[in-house]
Amino acid sequence: MKQLDTLREIMRPDEVFPFVHSQKGLEPITDRGVILSLEGVNKSFDGFKAINDLNMAIDAGELRCIIGPNGAGKTTMMDIITGKTVPDTGRVRFGQTMNLLGMSEPEIAQAGIGRKFQKPTVFECLTVAENLELAMHGDKSVWATFRATLSGEQQDHLDKVLTTIGLQEGAKGQAGSLSHGQKQWLEIGMLLMQRPHVLLVDEPAAGMTHQEMDKTTELLNALAGDHTVVVVEHDMDFVRSIARRVTVLHQGHVLAEGTMDDVQQDQRVIEVYLGE
Ligand SMILES: Nc1ncnc2c1ncn2[C@@H]1O[C@H](COP(=O)(O)OP(=O)(O)OP(=O)(O)O)[C@@H](O)[C@H]1O
Known about the structure:
Keywords: ATP-binding, Nucleotide-binding, Transport. By secondary structure, the protein is of the alpha/beta class. 36% of the residues lie in helices and 26% in strands. Helix 1 (3-10) runs antiparallel to helix 6 and helix 4 (128-137) packs parallel to helix 7. The longest helix is centred in the C-terminal third of the chain and has 14 residues, at 210-223. The site of adenosine-5'-triphosphate has 10 residues, from helix 2.
């Protein structure tokens, strides 16, 4: 995959918050500082505290892994960031000032936070390229728009995304014929078509072969830097292969944060995992 080469070109920052014009061109208003933050976030379901005073800050360009035992609140945290779940209290900000609470799921996606769920949801009867084309238009119900001719710039973007996800050779093949791993990459490509600033990726390695995992590691590492990538993952070997910084959630709260070595040696983390 010529990911690094092509990504520089794909990431032509849109004129979308939190990027502003500067002498160097479009720059994140965070100045590569914190791009996503949760402060004092709480969420209860029928009296059960799924998220308990959650505080977390993620820097622009980071590749952050979120780990934690079953029921730790990882999915609920992702749901809160993307507007699927509204917290009871707390603040969630994109950049330094954009308040994500009160924004709808489509508005948050439009602002530049894309999410990939664990199960691939590609359109199996369409080709790989058609899936990407459809994703570019956002509104998947608009078949007429999908049939419209792509501009040169849009076609270039599509070609670069195909190269990034390593599916350029199979672009005209049916998505239904792809392997599980290839479907996951296609879905990441579908997110990239909308030029997100932040990518939230749920268990990308689940069900993958070792070879596919290696390619996914390569892909996520290539995406970080120009994008901010947040990965929720259970597979510790995979986490070790991609993570620079790991956050351990437990009972809806941050238990530990640091490098993989740091958190693996943390006595509280060991106890939580052994006690699972
Ligand atoms: N809509 C809901 N109604 C009731 N309880 C919920 C709801 N969503 C989540 N919970 C509960 O909140 C807790 C946290 O769940 P969550 O799915 O966020 O954990 P998780 O860390 O993603 O777990 P896993 O690794 O098993 O996916 C769990 O105890 C779960 O049962």
